[in-house]
Amino acid sequence: MEVKVVDITGKETGKTVTLADNIFGIEPNDHAIYLDVKQYLANQRQGTHKSKQRNEISGSTRKLHKQKGTGGSRKGSIKNPLFRGGGRIFGPQPRDYSFKLNKKLKSLARQSALTYKAIESNIVVLEDFSFDTPKTKNYSSLVSGLKLANTKTLLVIADANKNVYLSSRNLPKAKVITASELSTYALLNASKLLLTTSSVKTIEESFAK
């Protein structure tokens, strides 16, 4: 699949980039995408939720009244979960929500997400660029030139570039990552995928390993 290369103003450069069919043109696997996104979201959870059980509540352990003869239910102490201020029954406890997936499945999920972007014509290839200074105005002009000012975009660059990253940080609908940080969730969370010519090569090399 051939895609025209444009500059940061949105003008065509006359160059084209061929996107590999074994990465951007496979048969998408929706279940692999589901599992990869599920793992990503699960790994974001802190799992630090905690409620106190009756043995952790401060209070007297004195038996409130005798066991039998009152006509009411038996009550061991004021820390009974049925009382206000008592311990919680089966409350949440700290736990780790993360789980593992096979590398091949994660790779298949990313390839499927990239294929969907290609099928829907939501991939824009930019020639390599950089900013002299980190300014939000620079990145804002870039997305405006591409007519994507009100669109959620994901820019994938080959290597870390502090000026480009800092320029995009204040824009709520813009995100910049390196090719090594590319994830299925990030791909699906963006409406338009912006790739630089060098990041295309880096992505293809990473999947070839």
Distance between the termini: 21 Å
CATH-level-2 architecture of the largest domain: 3-Layer(aba) Sandwich
Task: Give helix % range.
Answer: 25-40%
- Count of discrete domains: 2
Number of helices: 7
Q: Profile the largest sheet.
A: 6 strands, mixed
The assembly state of the depicted protein chains is single chain
**3D shape:** elongated
Within the CATH hierarchy, at the fold level, what is the topology of the largest domain? Ribosomal Protein L4, Chain: A
CATH superfamily of the largest domain: Ribosomal protein L4/L1
Q: Report the average pLDDT across residues.
A: 93
Proportion of residues in β-strands: 5-15%
Strand order of the largest sheet: 2-1-3-6-4-5
CATH class categorisation of the largest domain: Alpha Beta
Pfam family, one: Ribosomal_L4
GO cellular component, one term: ribonucleoprotein complex
Family: Belongs to the universal ribosomal protein uL4 family.
Keywords: Ribonucleoprotein, Ribosomal protein, RNA-binding, rRNA-binding
